């Protein structure tokens, strides 16, 4: 399994991370198919692991997805989580805070949406928006951003200490790839509903977002809540790597199938 993990307290330059990387796979049709087959096996494995997670009710999994516009957050969820029972999985998106949410600290609304024990929670965008958009648009000071990094680390440590395993994925695409994906949305009538004119304005701030992401990844990748920079130019490879890490995260909980209820002789049991 290719790692792509951001080491805690390291200095990260996204220019050193190739969004076009495909690890040990070539970009041939055969290798793409091999990768898709491997992903399907992982999806099946995750389905079995989720049942154990739910049955035990002692741990939870939180998956955080961040990335530039069009980086594939929705597509990752659709593909990697396709075998998961919806009853045990919840996707949350944090948009512009409401008046009530603004009346509390910035993590107040996030804590309420953290997955309960036995559940898988997915943050499609997350509490990290409060150190990204706010920074790029100069809504808060550099001092406040650093303070929020520390508060996020403490918050994620709290979740971990209460049985939540956290995996955070930055879906890394190139600016050229984003251009192509935006053009596809414009050209394809079936995809135009995804298009937001606001995305073009945000694209002009690419370099500022890159700097913000680099600082965020460096400051908040910890032993208990690591970040992974996932090459995401190729959707089939993105899905494979995220699936590998999600399965590994649940396997790290070392959950076995719970024992049956005591006092029942299942071999002799008959249902009339």
Question: What is the compact description of this entry?
Answer:
With 272 residues, the protein is α/β, with parallel strands linked by helices. It has helices at 29-56, 73-80, 99-102, 108-112, 133-136, 142-161, 175-187, 197-203, 206-220, 235-251, and strands spanning 60-67, 89-92, 120-124, 164-172, 227-231.
Explain what this protein looks like in three dimensions.
By secondary structure, the protein is an alpha/beta fold. The protein has ten helices and five strands, in the order H-E-H-E-H-H-E-H-H-E-H-H-H-E-H. It has helices spanning 29-56, 73-80, 99-102, 108-112, 133-136, 142-161, 175-187, 197-203, 206-220, 235-251, and strands at residues 60-67, 89-92, 120-124, 164-172, 227-231. Strands 2-3-1-4-5 form a five-stranded parallel sheet, with helices on both faces. Helix 1 packs parallel to helix 10 and helix 2 crosses helix 10. The N and C termini lie far apart (50 Å). The model has no long low-confidence stretch (mean pLDDT 94).
Biggest β-sheet description: 5 strands, parallel
- Quote the beta fraction: 5-15%
The helix/strand order is: HEHEHHEHHEHHHEH
Structural class: alpha/beta
- The best one-word shape is globular
Distance between the termini: 50 Å
Summarize the amount of helix as a percent range.
40-55%
């Amino acid at each position: 399994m290719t790692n792509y993990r951001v080491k805690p307290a390291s200095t990260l330059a996204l220019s050193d991370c190739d969004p076009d990387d495909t690890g040990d796979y070539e970009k041939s049709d055969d290798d793409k198919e091999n990768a898709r087959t491997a992903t399907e096996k992982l999806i099946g494995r995750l389905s079995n692991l989720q049942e154990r997670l739910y049955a035990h009710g002692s741990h939870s999994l939180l998956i955080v997805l961040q990335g530039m516009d069009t980086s594939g957050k929705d597509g990752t969820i659709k593909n990697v989580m396709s075998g998961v029972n919806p009853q045990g999985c919840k996707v949350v998106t944090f948009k512009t805070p409401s008046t009530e949410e603004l009346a509390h600290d910035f993590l107040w609304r996030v804590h309420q949406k953290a997955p309960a024990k036995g559940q898988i929670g997915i943050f499609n965008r997350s509490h990290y928006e409060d150190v990204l958009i706010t920074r790029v648009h100069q809504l808060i000071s550099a001092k406040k951003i650093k303070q929020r990094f520390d508060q996020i680390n403490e918050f994620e440590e709290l979740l971990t200490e209460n049985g939540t395993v956290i995996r955070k994925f930055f879906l890394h695409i190139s600016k050229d790839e984003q251009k192509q994906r935006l053009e596809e949305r414009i050209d394809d009538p079936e995809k135009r509903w995804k298009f937001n004119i606001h995305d073009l304005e945000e694209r002009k701030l690419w370099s500022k977002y890159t700097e913000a992401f680099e600082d965020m990844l460096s400051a908040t990748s910890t032993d208990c809540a690591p970040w992974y920079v996932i090459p995401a130019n190729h959707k089939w490879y993105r899905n494979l790597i995220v699936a590998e890490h999600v399965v590994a995260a649940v396997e790290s909980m070392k959950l076995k199938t719970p024992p049956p209820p005591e006092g029942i002789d299942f071999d002799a049991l008959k249902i009339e």
